[in-house]
């Protein structure tokens, strides 16, 4: 007998709803599905997710590059050339002209007490290298190649980079020892987001905080652009959060939501930001 959580093949999983655990295998896939990748909307809680993501092993070998750079460029170029070229040439100009402030840096300084900070999915260590001196940089990165580059980059800062899955990496850090956790453009990739959030909570010390940035499935662009919405990435993005589902999942993991204002989840933006914390124990 097999259950739906067992692998359909060694490299492709068959997931139940990662939010509430419902088996939606028999339900029709959403129209946003692409090729063999099946997006499902949970019949019970409404959460949208990729039912058959690649396993972690496949992620390491085939999809590590995609996870960081996306096959979206190629797909967009082939299927929607006009949108692709518009976005490709307009985005850098807009960035230069508008000069967006580094939101992560200001949120870290405002939310994290001094001490060790873990960047989940740290890539080559860009974010960690920018941490103020009060923070000790720790990274978790599933790609050995990227983890190696992050280690070289952070050599003079102390800290450590784990080349493992986010779940294994957080489990390797002693309980209650970390001041801050960065999950920037990460949770949408995690096959077990509830488990990861639980481990994040466990790893933080009381008073510690986490910063979360994910695409907002409820945003206007997704409704207007449909398939062309930049948040759809196959098979890299496996969870599609809305403001409500994100809040429910972090609270289920024990977190307190400290910051999630109207502009952090603005409906015209493709992404949303949240700052959560592990409350100090009651006296
Ligand atoms: Zn569900």
Q: Would you write up a description of this structure?
A:
A seven-stranded mixed sheet has the order 5-4-3-6-7-10-9. Strands 1-2-8 form a three-stranded antiparallel sheet, with no helix packed on it. The radius of gyration is 19 Å and the shape is globular. The chain has a domain at 103-220 and 235-277: Rossmann fold. With 283 residues, it is α/β, with parallel strands linked by helices. Helix content is 34%, strand content 19%. The protein contains ten helices and ten strands. Bound molecules: zinc ion. Zinc ion (ZN) binds next to loops.
Tell me what the CATH architecture of the domain at 103-220 and 235-277 is: 3-Layer(aba) Sandwich
Tell me the β content: 15-25%
Number of helices: 10
Query: What share of residues is helical?
Result: 25-40%
Strand order of the largest sheet: 5-4-3-6-7-10-9
Give the radius of gyration: 19 Å
Query: Which stretches are poorly predicted, pLDDT < 50 over at least 5 residues?
Result: 1-8
What is the quaternary state of this protein?
Answer: single chain
Mean pLDDT: 87
Q: Let me know the largest β-sheet.
A: 7 strands, mixed
- Any ligands, ions or cofactors bound here, and which? zinc ion
Question: What is the CATH topology of the domain at 103-220 and 235-277?
Answer: Rossmann fold
SSE-based structural type: alpha/beta
Main CATH class of the domain at 103-220 and 235-277? Alpha Beta
The count of strands amounts to 10
**H/E element sequence:** EEHHHHEHEHEHEHEHEHEE
Distance between the termini: 50 Å
Overall geometry: globular
The CATH fourth-level homologous superfamily of the domain at 103-220 and 235-277: Vaccinia Virus protein VP39
């Amino acid at each position: 007998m097999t259950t739906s959580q067992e692998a359909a093949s060694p490299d492709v999983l068959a997931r139940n709803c990662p939010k509430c655990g419902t088996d939606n295998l028999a339900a029709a896939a959403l129209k946003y599905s692409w090729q063999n990748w099946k997006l499902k909307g949970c019949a019970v809680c409404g959460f949208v997710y990729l039912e058959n993501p690649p396993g972690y092993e496949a992620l390491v070998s085939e999809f590590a590059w995609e996870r960081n750079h996306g096959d979206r460029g190629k797909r967009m170029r082939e299927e929607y050339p006009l949108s692709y070229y518009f976005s490709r040439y307009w985005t850098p100009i807009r960035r230069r002209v508008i000069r967006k402030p580094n939101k992560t840096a200001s949120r870290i300084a405002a939310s994290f007490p001094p001490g060790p900070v873990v960047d989940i999915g740290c890539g080559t260590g860009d974010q960690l290298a920018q941490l103020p001196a009060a923070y000790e940089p720790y990274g978790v990165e599933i790609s050995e190649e990227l983890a190696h580059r992050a280690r070289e980059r952070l050599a003079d800062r102390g800290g450590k980079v784990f080349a493992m899955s986010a779940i294994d990496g957080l489990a390797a850090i002693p309980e209650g020892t970390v001041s801050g956790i960065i999950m920037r453009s990460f949770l949408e990739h995690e096959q077990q987001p509830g488990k990861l959030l639980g481990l994040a909570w466990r790893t933080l010390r009381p008073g510690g905080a986490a910063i979360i940035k994910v695409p907002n499935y409820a945003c206007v662009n997704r409704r207007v652009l449909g398939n062309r919405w930049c948040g759809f990435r196959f098979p890299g993005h496996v969870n599609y959060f809305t403001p409500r589902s994100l809040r429910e999942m972090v609270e289920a993991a024990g977190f307190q939501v400290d910051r999630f204002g109207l502009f952090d989840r603005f409906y015209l933006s493709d992404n949303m930001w949240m700052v959560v914390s592990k409350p100090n124990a009651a006296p």
